[in-house]
Amino acid sequence: MKTEITLKNILIITLPIILGLVAQNIINVTNTIFLGHLSEIALGAGAIGGLFYFCFIILGGGFGIGVQIIIGRRNGENNIQGINKIFFNSLYIAVLLSLILFAVLYLYSDIFLRTIIHSEKVFAETSIYIHYRKWGLLFAYISIILRSFFIGTLRTNVLIYSTLFMSVINIFFDYSLIFGNFGFPQLGVGGAAIASVIAETSDVIFLLIWIFFSRSISKFKLFKFTKPDFQSILQLMKLSYPMMLQYFLSFGAWFMFFVIIEKIGELELAVSNIIRSFYMVIMIPVWGLGSATNSMVSNLMGNKEADKVILLIKKMAILSLSATVIIVLSYIFIPAKIIGFYSKDIILIQASVPVLYIISITIIFFSVSYIIFSAVSGSGNTLYAFFIEAITIALYISAAYLMGIVFKQKLPLVWSVETMYFIVLGLLSYTYFIKFKWRNIEI
Fold it and tell me: What digits encode the pLDDT tens for the residues 317-330?
């Protein structure tokens, strides 16, 4: 069956992913808002601790993209048995990987954090955050595989409901455990971490219940366990390991970016955590469109319709850019009010506004670059996608270090390296579709 690349079909697939990401990022926003009303130290620790934790989560995220690509290809081929085999073997890998990474966090997180964090107060609070947060790794990895299945098979509606449910759980326990409301203990930063763990667990439970009761999913037999198949495992790892390295490099670079900012000062770190939270919110439509682009490119190539990929990229890029411009125009004239949601500290608000202007420029470049980059990995050439990311990150970290540490520039100029990052990412991704033979890649 031929695939129609229409706005309607794109939105049917993309909107649930975007709405799901909106709900999921409520966790990030509520954590930042609550911690922002606690103290600058708590806000900074939430930034460092959250990014450090996500460096471990993002390995699973990269693996999940690889799983999503293969499931998308098998879905395009209408190969139900192949989807079942990929699902279970990816689940086995994800569980094993999460347990290994939990052990690493359990044994070495404090040692590592001690060497890179300058402020003793920030270190102490970050250590508390990781102490509790690491218990969510297993559930986060299982959730990644479940979500990869839904996106790869283009059944994305469930993601709206699961992440809304997860967000409500997180908000309730954030409010209860950070400040000690409703008879709960007042745990501060630790309360934010525990709330996130409970939310991650609830997400897995919700998705499993949905799979159990859904008739349309029953044909995939996801509760009929299959034995590990080493050929499938090798196939998964061959496709996924570049994505895992790429995602780890990407978030690892952002973590190092915040380490550089922490060395500039506690105020700069608090400002950057507020900006990070808002930045991630306005990125949501592009992330959703990128995820849909990845899966739709894979489905098109599985259905032998590679000739439609460029058309899809163009339509996705136009949609992404249009949505981003609308979002930027909605807040750019009221920056202080936007920052005021996160903190009432006048000094913090004044220091944040110039950085908000910088990321508003960055997000325009991101809106196009990320779509093209997502299509690169969706074509199956995950190794080339990794090389693109590696080159871009090397330039990014070098520029951030020079701006922040060597030349001691002001915070807005340090944040401007984000713009450079996405310009380079977009150009290298565009080169792939112009110069390389990608239409007949088999996975």
Answer: 999 999 999 999 99
Range of the domain at 298: 7-435
| pLDDT computed for residue 119 by the predictor | 85
The radius of gyration of the chain's CA atoms, rounded to the nearest angstrom, is: 21
Tokens of 340: 């005021």
The phi, psi pair for 222, rounded to 5°, reads -80, -5
Residue 1 has a CB neighbour count (10 Å cut-off) of 7
Q: Between the CA of residue 19 and those of 24, 162, 194, 285, what are the distances in Å? A: 9, 11, 24, 9
Taking each helix axis from N to C end, the angle separating 346-378 and 40-76, rounded to the nearest 10 degrees, works out to: 20
Residue 248 lies in a domain: yes
Q: Identity (one letter) of the amino acid at 262?
A: E
CA distance 400 to 413: 9
pLDDT of residue 308: 93
The DSSP output letter for 308 is G
Are 226 and 88 contacting, i.e. CB atoms less than 8 angstroms apart?
A: yes
Q: Determine the pLDDT at residue 45.
A: 86
Chain segment 56-92, per-residue pLDDT in tens? 888 888 898 889 888 988 988 889 999 999 999 999 9
Amino acid, single-letter form, for residue 244: M
Alpha-carbon distance of 119 to 262, in angstroms, equals: 8
Asked if residue 308 belongs to a domain, the reply is: yes
Domains contained in the chain, number: 1
Residue type present at position 20: G
Please give the structure tokens belonging to residue 171: 């908000």
Q: Which residues of the chain register pLDDT less than 70?
A: 1-4, 19-26
Does residue 100 lie in a domain region?
yes
Tell me if residue 295 falls in helix, strand or coil: helix
Q: Is residue 2 part of a domain?
A: no
Q: Is 224 left (phi over 0), alpha (psi -120 to 50) or beta?
A: beta
Q: Give the integer Cα–Cα distance in Å for 91 and 218.
A: 18
DSSP code per residue over 121-187: HHHHHHHHHHHHHGGGHHHHHHHHHHHHHHHHTT--HHHHHHHHHHHHHHHHHHHHHHHT-TT----
**Cα 350 to Cα 357, 410, 416, distances in angstroms:** 12, 14, 18
pLDDT (0 to 100) of residue 235: 85
Residues 6+ apart with CB under 8 A from 43: 32, 35, 36, 269, 270, 273, 274, 343
